[in-house]
TrEMBL record:
It comes from Citrobacter koseri (Citrobacter diversus). Keywords: ATP-binding, Nucleotide-binding. InterPro entries: Clp_ATPase_C, ClpA_ClpB, P-loop_NTPase. Pfam families: ClpB_D2-small (PF10431). This is Protein disaggregation chaperone. The keyword Nucleotide-binding applies. SUPFAM superfamilies: P-loop containing nucleoside triphosphate hydrolases. One of its GO terms (biological process) is cellular response to heat. One of its GO terms (cellular component) is cytoplasm. Residues 30-88 form the Clp ATPase C-terminal domain. GO terms for molecular function: ATP binding; ATP hydrolysis activity.
């Protein structure tokens, strides 16, 4: 995969530009388990913020699955999940 990316980069950019790049990092798509883990981490942060304000909530497993499904975008990864959680601030 990295060789393919480097080939595309060298085909589309001039050597002067490529020489300024220190490293090419290839990110693989996140899987369902990764998204669920990220959602759980975000929820723990939300629980803590709410607890500091004197509130307590519980999220069901079904709600966590829904958050995970809606919080992932193939282009942006898990960023929509974080944005949705930030709206609770």
């Amino acid at each position: 995969m990295k060789e393919l990316v480097l080939g595309v980069v060298s085909h589309n950019f001039r050597p002067e530009f490529i020489n300024r790049i220190d490293e090419v990092v290839v990110f693989h798509p996140l899987g369902e388990k990764h998204i669920a883990s990220i959602a759980q981490i975000q929820l723990q942060r939300l629980y803590k913020r709410l607890e500091e304000r004197g509130y307590e909530i519980h999220i069901s497993d079904d709600a966590l699955k829904l958050l995970s499904a809606n919080g992932y975008d193939p282009v942006y990864g898990a960023r929509p999940l974080k944005r949705g959680n930030s709206a609770a601030d």
